[in-house]
Write a structure and sequence with these properties.
alpha/beta, seven-stranded mixed beta sheet, 4 helices, 7 strands, globular
């Protein structure tokens, strides 16, 4: 099952991310794919805000992962630099601990991702417009998308 959502403004992107933050629970994994500038980090910043994170959220490109405290702890991974790497960062603890995890460039660690997750592809249409394609993998993620897009 695939869900699509056209977004016309930055505010709509922020609202979608904050709504998603209201619906997630610990051990949920959200993967984000999209070209540079598509809005992966912007989406994650709003998602973090929705979780009640007070710190500034930015892309962990050079550190791979940043952790934040909110209603639910947030693991924010940018695995762009792990391409062609066999590095194990302790995936079990990251994905199955007490946090929700957002992974940018997730296709690069495909084999390490949880079997069930919400995969989001963001396509940049123009300066403000985006197309979000949500691909829930697992029943709880299907229910999550249905609730998110009500």
């Amino acid at each position: 099952m695939i869900f699509e959502k056209d977004i016309n403004t930055l505010e709509e992107t922020q609202a979608l991310a904050m709504r998603l933050a209201d619906l997630v629970e610990p051990q949920y994994t959200i993967t984000l794919e999209g070209d540079l500038g598509a809005g992966k980090t912007t989406f994650t910043q709003s998602f973090a805000k929705g979780l009640g994170v007070k710190r500034t959220v930015n892309s962990p490109t050079f550190t791979i992962m940043k952790q934040y405290v909110g209603r639910i702890p947030l693991n924010h991974l940018d695995v762009y630099r792990l391409e062609d790497s066999d590095e194990d960062l302790g995936w079990e603890e990251i994905f199955y601990g007490d946090a929700v995890t957002v992974v940018e460039w997730a296709h690069l660690i495909q084999e390490d991702l949880p079997e069930e997750r919400l995969a989001i592809e963001i396509t940049r249409i123009d300066e403000t417009k985006r197309k979000f394609v949500l691909k829930p993998i697992g029943e709880k993620y299907v229910r999550l998308c249905e609730e998110l897009l009500k």
